[in-house]
Amino acid sequence: MNVLPQAILQSPREHPRFIEQTVCPSLDFARIHLIKDKDGIDDYLAKNIKGLSKQEAAANRNSYKQNICIDMLRQGYHESFSELFTLIQKWDALREAAGPGSAIWQQQSLEEQPDKLDQLHHFLTRAEAARRAGHYEEVYDNQLNLAYCFSDPEDKWLSNYFYEQCFNTAQLIKIDGGKREAQAHANMGLLNEEQGHVMKAAEHYEAFYQLTEGSTWKDETGHTYNSLACEHLWRIYTLLADKMLENKEHQQAIKTLIKALKMAKEGGDMKIEGEAAYCLSLAYHFAGEQQRALSLLNTSVKIFTGLCDSAGLGRAYAAIAKILVSQGKAAETIKYLGEFMKAAENAHLSQSLVDACVLLGNVHNERGNYNEAFEYFSQASEAAKTLNSLPLVDETKTYCGIAKAHKLMVAFNSHIEAEDPVSLKYLLAWKENRSDVCTDPLTVELDIETSASKPL
């Protein structure tokens, strides 16, 4: 179970693009066996078949996989043939292991997907030719293109296979200053992180960081490799710290999160820096070091305010309120949350306004100030309506109901404790109409006497 917010711990959904993906040209093999309808076959024959050689006739009889393999062998690409054959066997083994009813069981096999066979034929043979010439940087680029080709979820095993091949090849490249080796470490870090091998991922990210220090390399989106390394290290250190906090290893978690904050600052992303400061504050809070926690939370508040980050502000102020309440500083808590509420109103951050009002309502509710709690929850409900979020509106209405019930319980209990006839009449009258319980028995008594004196 995560101790730190799940939103912060999420891994990137895809690998960074370090090179421009090359488009594989279509192959010259006849694809008559891929044309399903009779009219299509007749049209193909009329246009293309005027007299076939033995090889051409065989190409029309064979499956597309067989044609691919024959072409590889004919051109002397024995390693590419072996690798393709191994991958097809691996897919079959994965399918058999998963068994009937599994997602992979419903998919077409690799040998039944010509487009993917085209990609494999093109890039595997180019990689083999480059390997023979000793051009390992070209081998790497072709393998990386294959990893990019198979980005669909069902092809994850294929992309992972080629990322691993890229990593092995990158160790042999000596002419690019470590650029491709850095890329390979980044991809292997993500691969291991996705598979839950957090320590291995951390090792790869640290190597990625070391190789990119002082470099100006950038990915296709314009991010420097070093800033990517800082982001990956921030995230993986935070993941490691989360496990430590789960195991009550507070001091070790603090040390790890200090490293995460350092990486966040070096990476230059203010959003990440705010999240890093927030996570470190939680570790200090769990360790009982409340003043350090508050100092870091104030840093987070400043960053999130500058970014107009409603989610970040809500988390930071909620943590501040929790710490101050635990210290018995209710008045200071209300002051902080009042500032949060004003800042949200001024910046027109409706979600933050909802969060601030709910937090203020909870503080007053816990202190027994039910009228104030009801007012703040009502403001939260009104702000929630502007966000067009039905679940949020329902949640704030629930808070309003709780505060109103608490208000009612005060009057109800006072009548119960009075144990007099007038209070009993009020309780019976309330039971009939479910209106607010009157807190002034004298007023009600006068009303009853007036009613009794009127002639029937």
Description:
This protein has 456 residues and is an all-alpha fold. The chain is elongated, with a radius of gyration of 34 Å. About 4% of the residues have low confidence. α16 runs antiparallel to α17. It starts with 5 loop residues before the first helix and ends with a helix.
- The total strand number stands at 0
Q: What structural category characterises the helix and strand content?
A: mainly alpha
Strand residue content: under 5%
Mean pLDDT: 85
Give the helix tally: 22
Helical residue percent band: over 70%
Order of helices and strands: HHHHHHHHHHHHHHHHHHHHHH
Radius of gyration: 34 Å
Question: Layout of helices and strands, plus pairs?
Answer:
Elements: H1 6-9, H2 38-48, H3 54-61, H4 64-74, H5 78-98, H6 103-106, H7 114-132, H8 136-149, H9 156-170, H10 179-194, H11 198-212, H12 225-246, H13 250-267, H14 270-286, H15 290-307, H16 310-326, H17 330-346, H18 350-367, H19 370-385, H20 390-418, H21 421-433, H22 441-453
Helix pairs in contact: 4-7, 5-7, 7-8, 8-9, 9-10, 10-11, 10-12, 11-12, 12-13, 12-14, 13-14, 14-15, 14-16, 15-16, 16-17, 16-18, 17-18, 18-19, 18-20, 19-20, 20-21
Descriptors:
mainly alpha, about 0% strand, elongated, about 450 residues, single chain
Gist of the model:
This protein has 456 residues and is mostly helical. Helix content is 74%, strand content 0%. Helix 16 runs antiparallel to helix 17 (330-346).
